[in-house]
Amino acid sequence: RNRELEQLVAERTGEIRRQEVALREVSRRAGMAEVATGVLHNVGNVFNGVNVSVSTIGGMVRRSKALDVQRAVGLLRDHLGDLPGFLTTDERGRQLPGYLIRATDQLVKEREGLLGELENVDSGISHVTQIISAQQSLAGAGGVEEEIDLGALIDETLRLHTQGWAAEGIAVEVEREPLPPVLLDRPQFVQIFVNLLTNARNAVLHPEAADRRILVRLGAVGEPPQARIQVLDTGVGIAPEHLVSIFNYGFTMRPNGRGFGLHSAANASRQMGGALRVESPGLGQGATFTLEIPLTSSTNGKRPK
Question: Side-chain half-sphere of 266: how many Cα atoms within 13 Å?
């Protein structure tokens, strides 16, 4: 009987562990999806501008004076045998020089307009290439720790993932202190940071948000030293009873939320040897998410124990 119970307990324990592994993987992928969603949003914004330019180019070509000039040149071609007489005695011929002068001026303007729109298209395509290249650089190979300039990585992530936020009325500010290199998994950190940024954006876009300001603060605290990254928002805030559940799997305060992002970020922070916590005075008073991760040792490039 005892052996049967031991076997049953072992089976249940194994099943729970498998479910935990699966849950962590779902959360990890959800966090990666947040990053990818941000990139696709930025690419989509650029392509909206490209589509406008392409539509403008199409309209300019359809309205072009080129076909009218072609017809005017056809008249000249038809009267090559008596061109002086055609230009002086025929009503169409007398009007033709003035028309060609005006049409030529119009064609020059069309050319300038087309070149301007083509430059917009070229710039848009280059921008998309830069976005993809930057994301590939940020992503890198997961599971590999490297010494990172955390300030530079935060700047690059902000540049890539906050494009278009100003148009939404969101102001993003950065405060920082100089830090030594940090030994971390680059994609894992980017996943955490993007999830915190996305959460802050959703909070300040809430109809009940007091303001639309986000502050990213970078510094060092404690002994042994920790890198502290804070994302503060002036958004809708968090009720006291929700603070204990904010990092739980599936917990969300948004109608269309899935409750994956912050849970994934909390898991990833623990895997990095760090911690993620949240503070909020209450509803309507914003929130502060704080990530603390060990700094590298200046002597051996390893995490402090």
Answer: 16
